[in-house]
Amino acid sequence: MEQRHGGSLHRTEEAMRRLGSAIDRLESASARVGAGDLLLAGELRGARDDYARLEETSRVVATRLDLAIDRLRDLLGD
User: Which residue has the higher pLDDT, 40 or 68?
Assistant: First the structure.
């Protein structure tokens, strides 16, 4: 019976070692995914900021073009 307990203890220890190893791998993968999420969130924020600047620039350019067209029409007597 001593040997059965020894074998059982060995299997339990081996299972605990494998479980610990699996948990370590999961934590490592989770950290990588979390870092990737942070990186993507930063890139998305940057893209939104770029879009807002481009939108404002487009608005300013459209206003200036409209004014230039109106001046040309006035000069041409149209």
Answer: 68
What pLDDT shows up at residue 78?
A: 65
Q: Reduced to 3 DSSP states, what percent helix, strand and coil does the chain have, rounded to the nearest 5?
A: 95, 0, 5
Sign for the pseudo-dihedral over CA of 14, 19, 23, 25? positive
Q: Tokens representing 11?
A: 């299997």
- Taking only the tens place, the pLDDT of each residue in 15-48 is 999 999 999 888 888 788 777 888 888 899 999 9
3-class DSSP state of 35: helix
Q: How far is CA 15 from the centre of its chain?
A: 36
Longest Cα pair distance anywhere in the chain, in angstroms? 111
